[in-house]
Specification:
elongated
Length: 186
């Protein structure tokens, strides 16, 4: 890391390196030494910024969530008003399926699996609750009959499409067909 780099920038770079380690080695592969190696730093450097593995994990999750929220805000601003959930799904899946997002996508699913094993104390659980609440509010604003159900369906659909994208690249028409089917029951 550069000596002129601000501590906040260093923390962000460390969090992003932790995401890369999680994507490559799985959640159990995350350690201070692994992130030190990822950044080509002397052993012990990362622990100066994040003393515990939990703190490092929290930073990785926070960075993933921050980036997801930024992507959603940017997409919503670029879409026609009012935002139609299907168009948001289509654009999110297209964006998050791109090659440059693969590391983040792999890390997201690794962390989802880890959260499922570890339960409610995992930092991703609180982030998902917050995202679910925001999605439910969006459906309330659209006048959905069952906004909580629609929010769960939308998030499950996005995650399912993204998981499928990890295994194969779809053409735009396949994605469009999936989203069109989704529109019918949202």
């Amino acid at each position: 890391m550069k000596k002129t780099e601000e501590p906040g920038d260093r923390r962000q770079r460390i969090a992003e390196a932790a995401i890369a380690v999680i994507a490559r080695d799985g959640g159990r592969g995350l350690s201070h030494r692994a992130v030190d190696a990822e950044l080509a730093l002397p052993v012990g450097s990362v622990s100066y910024y994040f003393r515990t593995r939990k703190a490092l994990l929290d930073a990785a999750v926070a960075r993933l969530v921050e980036r997801d929220e930024q992507d959603v805000r940017e997409l919503m601003a670029s879409l026609r008003k009012p935002v139609v959930p299907a168009s948001l799904v289509r654009e999110l899946v297209k964006r998050w399926s791109q090659k440059e997002h693969r590391t983040w996508l792999c890390a997201r699913f690794e962390l989802l699996l880890e959260a499922g094993r570890e339960g409610p104390d995992h930092p991703l659980i609180a982030a998902r609750r917050k995202f679910m609440a925001g999605t439910q509010q969006m459906f309330e604003g659209l006048g959905a009959k069952a906004p909580a159900v629609s929010a769960r369906r939308l998030i499950a659909s996005v995650e399912g499409l993204l998981l499928d994208e990890l295994f194969r690249a779809h053409s735009a028409s396949v994605l469009d067909q999936a989203v069109t089917g989704l529109e019918r029951w949202l």
